[in-house]
Write a structure and sequence with these properties.
Keywords: Transferase. This protein is α/β, with parallel strands linked by helices. The protein is about 20% helix and about 20% strand. It has a single domain, classed as L-arginine/glycine Amidinotransferase, Chain A (5-stranded Propeller), CATH 3.75.10. The chain contains eight helices and 19 strands.
């Protein structure tokens, strides 16, 4: 049965089939969270964000929302149904029997929290204390989908306790240095321990019957094993990228564009021993173009490699940030129609074009893109 804009249906099996329905985040009430173990490990040592926390300036929130609203309108004009989250009060502290933090984060990057696999949307555990309640921004939408789509499965992974036992104290030093970080990343020694399952949805890429999950700062091996047990009809593969001193979220490192083609961050290449699945099945992995910027925007957690954080609308069409001219040029050479989207001034609120969206419906069914395993 063909998709209809008048009928809600949750279904998305991969990152590239034609996008029909999507959630686009908001910058409302976004905060720089207080220091905590997961955050301290992520923020680069020379970042202007170290030592700062509190509500972001209203003029930057307004500018980010302007860009997000424009992006939503661009998608609507292309026939995509767009929903938006309802922001909670992110100034509220989070207190549990195990921890306290003085504020929360925001609701710009739904991709971090929500994982759509087929007819299911799964709320991730999250590994930051400040993001414990982030799923509440999306609950009104998930409630609506549940009421309107009888096949929709709304699931939530077990909430972790996030005690100090979840974090390696070695990462809490103010001056570790990138050389040490790269050595630890090569050894698969990350800030998160194996105390309990932890994963962010943005560490997962969907390839039909296969899920590819990054092991790093925000997702541990127990989290990947939890996903493996939760999706028993899928093959779940663990990957890591040793060239990244801050390995958080896979979508600025490894970006599938269509069946058979992936763009990979040239500074964080997939190790040879993990490329076999792709090579045996005829997939090409090409180095991404260089970013157009030498530094991230002010007060931004992310690296300049948000250049490759693109949103695929269908196997021939991709949204690329407007200023990322080298990435757009490469996409054109790879046979993709490029839709330019201005978003750079919203990067600091949670990421790029892939981060600020979450699939609700894409055409297509669950296919096996890797029959040779």
């Amino acid at each position: 049965m063909a998709w209809s804009p008048d009928k809600t249906e949750v279904k998305s099996w991969n990152e590239w089939d034609t996008l029909r329905h999507v959630i686009v985040g908001r910058a409302d009430d976004c905060h720089i969270p207080p220091e905590e173990p997961a955050l301290d490990a992520k923020v680069p040592e020379d970042s202007d964000m170290r030592g700062q926390w509190g509500r972001r300036p209203q003029e930057t929130i307004d500018r980010a929302n302007e860009l997000l609203d424009n992006f939503a309108d661009q998608l609507r004009k292309r026939g995509v149904r767009v929903d938006r989250p309802v922001s909670i009060d992110h100034s509220q502290p989070v207190t549990t029997p195990d921890f306290h933090t003085d504020s929360q984060f925001g609701c710009m990057p739904p991709r971090d929290v929500l994982l759509t696999v087929g007819h299911e949307m799964l709320e991730a555990t999250m590994s930051y204390r400040c993001r414990w309640f982030e799923y509440l921004n999306y609950r009104p939408l998930l409630k609506q989908y549940w009421e309107e789509d009888p096949r929709f499965r709304h699931e939530a992974a077990p909430k972790p306790r996030l005690t100090d036992a979840d974090y390696h104290p070695d990462y809490l030093s103010e001056k570790i240095g990138d050389a040490q970080r790269l050595e630890w990343a090569a050894e698969k020694f990350f800030v998160t321990t194996e105390e309990e399952p932890l994963f962010d949805a943005a560490d997962v890429l969907r390839f039909g019957k296969d899920l590819v999950v990054q092991h790093g700062f925000t997702t541990n091996l127990k989290g990947i094993e939890w996903l493996r047990r939760h999706f028993p009809d899928h093959r779940v593969h663990t990957v890591n990228f040793p060239g990244d001193p801050y390995p958080i979220h896979i979508d600025a490192t490894f970006t599938p564009l269509r069946p058979g083609l992936i763009v990979n961050n040239p500074q964080r290449r997939l190790p040879e021993e993990q490329r076999g699945m792709f090579e045996k099945n005829g997939w090409e992995i090409v180095d991404a173009a260089q970013p157009a910027h030498n530094t991230p925007p002010p007060l931004c957690y992310s690296s300049t490699w948000l250049s490759m954080n693109v949103l695929v609308l269908d196997p021939k069409t991709v949204c690329v940030e407007k200023s990322e001219v080298y990435q757009a040029e490469q996409m054109d050479k790879l046979g993709m129609e490029v839709v330019e989207v201005e978003l750079r001034d919203a990067y600091a609120f949670g990421g790029g074009l892939h981060c600020c969206t979450a699939d609700v419906y894409r055409d297509g069914d669950c296919e096996d893109y890797f029959p040779k395993q």
